[in-house]
Amino acid sequence: MAQDAGGLITQAPAVSSQAPQLRIRIRNLTRTYGERAVLDDLDLDIRPGEFVALLGHSGSGKSTLLRALAGLDYDVSGHGELDVPAQVSVVFQDARLLPWQKVLDNVVLGLPGAEDRGRRALEEVGLKGRENAWPNELSGGEQQRVALARSLVREPELLLADEPFGALDALTRLKMHALLKKLCLAHNPAVLLVTHDVDEAIALADRVLVLDNGRIAAERRSDEQGIRDDLLRALGVTAA
Ligand SMILES: Nc1ncnc2c1ncn2[C@@H]1O[C@H](COP(=O)(O)OP(=O)(O)OP(=O)(O)O)[C@@H](O)[C@H]1O
Predict the structure, then answer these.
(1) ABC transporter domain: which residues (predicted)?
(2) How much is the pTM?
(3) How many CA atoms lie within 13 A of 196 on its CB side?
(4) Relative to the CA of 60, which ligand 1 atom is closest?
(5) What is the ipTM of this complex?
(6) How buried is 230 (Cβ within 10 angstroms: 0-12 exposed, 13-18 middle, 19+ buried)?
(7) Which end of the chain is more exposed for a tag (fewer CB within 10 A), N or C?
(8) What is the CB < 6 Å shell around ligand 1?
Protein backbone atom coordinates (compact mmCIF):
# COMPACT_ATOMS: atom_id res chain seq x y z
CA MET A 1 0.00 0.00 0.00
CA ALA A 2 1.38 3.40 -0.92
CA GLN A 3 0.41 6.62 0.77
CA ASP A 4 1.27 10.22 0.07
CA ALA A 5 3.00 12.56 2.50
CA GLY A 6 -0.30 13.92 3.74
CA GLY A 7 -1.49 10.41 4.56
CA LEU A 8 -4.67 11.03 2.62
CA ILE A 9 -4.36 9.35 -0.73
CA THR A 10 -4.03 5.64 -0.58
CA GLN A 11 -3.58 2.69 -2.80
CA ALA A 12 -6.28 0.27 -1.87
CA PRO A 13 -5.64 -2.88 0.15
CA ALA A 14 -5.17 -6.05 -1.86
CA VAL A 15 -7.69 -6.05 -4.68
CA SER A 16 -9.04 -9.39 -5.78
CA SER A 17 -11.49 -10.25 -8.54
CA GLN A 18 -13.74 -7.24 -8.18
CA ALA A 19 -17.05 -7.52 -9.98
CA PRO A 20 -16.94 -4.75 -12.64
CA GLN A 21 -20.38 -3.43 -11.68
CA LEU A 22 -19.21 -2.76 -8.11
CA ARG A 23 -16.78 -0.19 -6.70
CA ILE A 24 -16.74 -1.72 -3.24
CA ARG A 25 -17.42 -5.33 -2.43
CA ILE A 26 -17.09 -6.40 1.18
CA ARG A 27 -17.80 -9.88 2.46
CA ASN A 28 -17.59 -11.20 6.02
CA LEU A 29 -15.43 -8.30 7.14
CA THR A 30 -14.39 -8.60 10.76
CA ARG A 31 -12.29 -6.11 12.73
CA THR A 32 -11.42 -6.75 16.36
CA TYR A 33 -9.78 -4.56 18.98
CA GLY A 34 -8.65 -6.93 21.73
CA GLU A 35 -11.69 -9.05 22.57
CA ARG A 36 -14.18 -6.68 20.95
CA ALA A 37 -15.44 -7.32 17.42
CA VAL A 38 -16.23 -3.85 16.11
CA LEU A 39 -17.11 -5.14 12.64
CA ASP A 40 -18.70 -8.57 12.68
CA ASP A 41 -19.06 -10.47 9.37
CA LEU A 42 -20.12 -7.28 7.60
CA ASP A 43 -21.21 -7.38 3.94
CA LEU A 44 -21.53 -4.26 1.77
CA ASP A 45 -21.62 -3.44 -1.95
CA ILE A 46 -21.33 0.03 -3.50
CA ARG A 47 -21.77 0.60 -7.23
CA PRO A 48 -19.70 2.98 -9.40
CA GLY A 49 -20.91 6.54 -8.93
CA GLU A 50 -23.20 5.60 -6.06
CA PHE A 51 -23.30 7.92 -3.02
CA VAL A 52 -23.78 5.99 0.22
CA ALA A 53 -24.04 7.54 3.67
CA LEU A 54 -23.23 5.59 6.83
CA LEU A 55 -24.93 6.45 10.12
CA GLY A 56 -24.44 4.82 13.49
CA HIS A 57 -23.97 5.53 17.16
CA SER A 58 -20.69 6.85 18.41
CA GLY A 59 -18.39 3.83 18.70
CA SER A 60 -20.43 1.68 16.30
CA GLY A 61 -17.42 1.23 14.01
CA LYS A 62 -18.04 3.71 11.17
CA SER A 63 -14.48 5.05 11.14
CA THR A 64 -13.11 1.53 11.56
CA LEU A 65 -14.93 0.51 8.38
CA LEU A 66 -13.72 3.59 6.54
CA ARG A 67 -10.14 2.99 7.65
CA ALA A 68 -10.36 -0.63 6.46
CA LEU A 69 -11.47 0.60 3.03
CA ALA A 70 -8.68 3.19 2.93
CA GLY A 71 -6.07 0.65 3.97
CA LEU A 72 -5.29 2.78 7.02
CA ASP A 73 -6.15 0.23 9.73
CA TYR A 74 -2.79 -0.75 11.12
CA ASP A 75 -3.67 -1.45 14.74
CA VAL A 76 -6.64 -3.78 14.40
CA SER A 77 -6.91 -7.47 13.60
CA GLY A 78 -9.45 -9.06 11.34
CA HIS A 79 -10.28 -10.91 8.17
CA GLY A 80 -12.74 -10.88 5.31
CA GLU A 81 -12.94 -10.05 1.60
CA LEU A 82 -12.38 -6.41 0.73
CA ASP A 83 -12.37 -5.27 -2.90
CA VAL A 84 -11.84 -1.57 -3.48
CA PRO A 85 -10.58 0.37 -6.51
CA ALA A 86 -6.97 1.38 -6.98
CA GLN A 87 -7.54 5.11 -6.64
CA VAL A 88 -9.10 6.05 -3.33
CA SER A 89 -9.19 9.54 -1.78
CA VAL A 90 -10.04 10.27 1.83
CA VAL A 91 -11.43 13.45 3.40
CA PHE A 92 -11.52 13.83 7.17
CA GLN A 93 -13.26 16.18 9.60
CA ASP A 94 -10.15 18.37 9.68
CA ALA A 95 -8.62 19.38 6.37
CA ARG A 96 -5.12 18.09 7.27
CA LEU A 97 -3.34 20.61 5.05
CA LEU A 98 0.41 20.97 5.36
CA PRO A 99 0.81 24.41 7.00
CA TRP A 100 4.20 25.04 5.35
CA GLN A 101 2.81 24.51 1.83
CA LYS A 102 0.68 27.03 -0.03
CA VAL A 103 -2.84 26.11 -1.06
CA LEU A 104 -2.03 24.99 -4.62
CA ASP A 105 0.98 23.01 -3.41
CA ASN A 106 -1.26 21.21 -0.93
CA VAL A 107 -3.70 20.32 -3.70
CA VAL A 108 -1.05 18.85 -6.03
CA LEU A 109 1.09 17.31 -3.30
CA GLY A 110 2.81 14.26 -4.74
CA LEU A 111 1.54 14.98 -8.27
CA PRO A 112 4.42 16.54 -10.22
CA GLY A 113 3.32 18.66 -13.18
CA ALA A 114 -0.31 18.78 -12.05
CA GLU A 115 -0.44 22.53 -11.30
CA ASP A 116 -2.93 23.31 -14.08
CA ARG A 117 -5.23 20.54 -12.88
CA GLY A 118 -4.78 21.82 -9.34
CA ARG A 119 -5.78 25.35 -10.39
CA ARG A 120 -8.88 23.98 -12.13
CA ALA A 121 -9.77 21.96 -9.02
CA LEU A 122 -9.43 25.08 -6.86
CA GLU A 123 -11.69 26.96 -9.28
CA GLU A 124 -14.24 24.14 -9.03
CA VAL A 125 -14.35 24.44 -5.25
CA GLY A 126 -14.70 28.24 -5.44
CA LEU A 127 -11.13 29.16 -4.46
CA LYS A 128 -9.83 30.68 -7.67
CA GLY A 129 -7.31 33.36 -6.74
CA ARG A 130 -6.31 31.71 -3.42
CA GLU A 131 -3.65 29.44 -4.93
CA ASN A 132 -0.79 31.22 -3.17
CA ALA A 133 -2.48 31.65 0.21
CA TRP A 134 -1.16 29.78 3.25
CA PRO A 135 -3.62 27.33 4.85
CA ASN A 136 -3.84 29.40 8.05
CA GLU A 137 -5.11 32.35 5.98
CA LEU A 138 -8.25 30.34 5.10
CA SER A 139 -11.42 29.75 7.11
CA GLY A 140 -12.34 26.23 8.23
CA GLY A 141 -14.82 25.90 5.38
CA GLU A 142 -12.26 27.12 2.86
CA GLN A 143 -9.72 24.63 4.19
CA GLN A 144 -12.25 21.83 3.66
CA ARG A 145 -12.72 23.10 0.09
CA VAL A 146 -8.98 22.73 -0.42
CA ALA A 147 -9.18 19.19 1.00
CA LEU A 148 -11.94 18.39 -1.50
CA ALA A 149 -9.88 19.85 -4.35
CA ARG A 150 -6.89 17.77 -3.23
CA SER A 151 -9.02 14.64 -3.26
CA LEU A 152 -10.76 15.22 -6.56
CA VAL A 153 -7.69 16.30 -8.52
CA ARG A 154 -6.70 12.62 -8.27
CA GLU A 155 -9.97 11.61 -10.00
CA PRO A 156 -10.68 8.92 -7.38
CA GLU A 157 -12.94 6.01 -8.23
CA LEU A 158 -13.88 6.00 -4.55
CA LEU A 159 -14.13 8.98 -2.19
CA LEU A 160 -14.19 8.15 1.51
CA ALA A 161 -15.39 11.00 3.72
CA ASP A 162 -15.31 10.76 7.52
CA GLU A 163 -17.59 13.48 8.92
CA PRO A 164 -16.06 16.03 6.54
CA PHE A 165 -18.45 18.81 7.58
CA GLY A 166 -18.70 17.95 11.28
CA ALA A 167 -16.62 20.92 12.42
CA LEU A 168 -18.38 23.53 10.28
CA ASP A 169 -21.21 25.90 11.22
CA ALA A 170 -24.71 25.14 9.91
CA LEU A 171 -24.66 27.65 7.07
CA THR A 172 -21.21 26.62 5.83
CA ARG A 173 -22.33 22.98 6.01
CA LEU A 174 -25.26 23.66 3.69
CA LYS A 175 -22.94 25.37 1.22
CA MET A 176 -20.55 22.42 1.41
CA HIS A 177 -23.42 20.00 0.76
CA ALA A 178 -24.24 21.84 -2.44
CA LEU A 179 -20.57 21.89 -3.43
CA LEU A 180 -20.07 18.18 -2.77
CA LYS A 181 -23.16 17.34 -4.82
CA LYS A 182 -21.88 19.44 -7.71
CA LEU A 183 -18.42 17.88 -7.54
CA CYS A 184 -19.84 14.36 -7.44
CA LEU A 185 -21.97 15.07 -10.51
CA ALA A 186 -18.88 16.33 -12.34
CA HIS A 187 -16.44 13.60 -11.24
CA ASN A 188 -18.79 10.71 -10.48
CA PRO A 189 -16.79 8.82 -7.85
CA ALA A 190 -18.45 6.25 -5.65
CA VAL A 191 -18.75 7.89 -2.22
CA LEU A 192 -18.95 6.51 1.30
CA LEU A 193 -19.81 9.34 3.69
CA VAL A 194 -19.68 8.78 7.44
CA THR A 195 -21.93 11.21 9.27
CA HIS A 196 -23.93 11.61 12.49
CA ASP A 197 -26.42 13.84 10.74
CA VAL A 198 -29.52 12.02 9.46
CA ASP A 199 -30.63 15.00 7.38
CA GLU A 200 -27.20 15.38 5.81
CA ALA A 201 -27.24 11.67 4.93
CA ILE A 202 -30.66 11.91 3.28
CA ALA A 203 -29.83 15.15 1.46
CA LEU A 204 -26.60 13.86 -0.06
CA ALA A 205 -26.79 10.11 -0.48
CA ASP A 206 -28.55 7.76 -2.88
CA ARG A 207 -28.63 5.16 -0.13
CA VAL A 208 -28.34 5.44 3.66
CA LEU A 209 -27.04 2.68 5.93
CA VAL A 210 -27.11 2.29 9.70
CA LEU A 211 -24.22 0.42 11.32
CA ASP A 212 -25.03 -1.37 14.56
CA ASN A 213 -23.47 -4.32 16.38
CA GLY A 214 -20.82 -4.58 13.71
CA ARG A 215 -23.21 -5.02 10.80
CA ILE A 216 -25.47 -3.03 8.49
CA ALA A 217 -28.64 -2.97 10.58
CA ALA A 218 -30.80 -0.84 8.28
CA GLU A 219 -30.64 0.33 4.70
CA ARG A 220 -32.91 2.77 2.86
CA ARG A 221 -32.91 4.53 -0.49
CA SER A 222 -33.02 8.26 0.17
CA ASP A 223 -36.09 8.71 -2.04
CA GLU A 224 -38.12 6.22 0.04
CA GLN A 225 -41.12 7.62 1.88
CA GLY A 226 -40.70 7.87 5.63
CA ILE A 227 -36.94 7.35 5.46
CA ARG A 228 -36.16 9.92 8.17
CA ASP A 229 -38.45 8.26 10.72
CA ASP A 230 -37.15 4.81 9.74
CA LEU A 231 -33.55 5.87 10.22
CA LEU A 232 -34.26 7.56 13.56
CA ARG A 233 -35.97 4.35 14.72
CA ALA A 234 -33.05 2.24 13.53
CA LEU A 235 -30.74 4.54 15.49
CA GLY A 236 -32.93 4.13 18.56
CA VAL A 237 -33.69 7.87 18.70
CA THR A 238 -37.43 7.27 18.42
CA ALA A 239 -39.37 4.24 19.65
CA ALA A 240 -39.85 1.31 17.27
N1 LIG B 1 -6.96 2.02 18.05
C2 LIG B 1 -7.95 1.52 18.77
N3 LIG B 1 -7.71 0.69 19.82
C4 LIG B 1 -8.70 0.16 20.55
N5 LIG B 1 -10.01 0.38 20.31
C6 LIG B 1 -10.32 1.17 19.28
C7 LIG B 1 -9.32 1.78 18.46
N8 LIG B 1 -9.94 2.52 17.52
C9 LIG B 1 -11.26 2.40 17.73
N10 LIG B 1 -11.49 1.59 18.80
C11 LIG B 1 -12.80 1.21 19.34
O12 LIG B 1 -13.57 0.69 18.29
C13 LIG B 1 -14.93 1.12 18.42
C14 LIG B 1 -15.36 1.75 17.10
O15 LIG B 1 -14.62 2.95 16.90
P16 LIG B 1 -14.90 3.87 15.63
O17 LIG B 1 -13.97 5.03 15.75
O18 LIG B 1 -14.84 3.04 14.42
O19 LIG B 1 -16.41 4.31 15.91
P20 LIG B 1 -17.28 5.41 15.19
O21 LIG B 1 -18.60 4.78 14.89
O22 LIG B 1 -16.54 5.99 14.05
O23 LIG B 1 -17.44 6.45 16.36
P24 LIG B 1 -17.66 8.05 16.31
O25 LIG B 1 -19.00 8.26 15.67
O26 LIG B 1 -17.65 8.44 17.76
O27 LIG B 1 -16.52 8.65 15.54
C28 LIG B 1 -14.99 2.07 19.60
O29 LIG B 1 -15.50 1.36 20.70
C30 LIG B 1 -13.56 2.44 19.83
O31 LIG B 1 -13.31 2.67 21.20
Answers:
(1) 24-238
(2) 0.90
(3) 9
(4) 21
(5) 0.96
(6) middle
(7) C
(8) 33, 38, 56, 58-64, 75
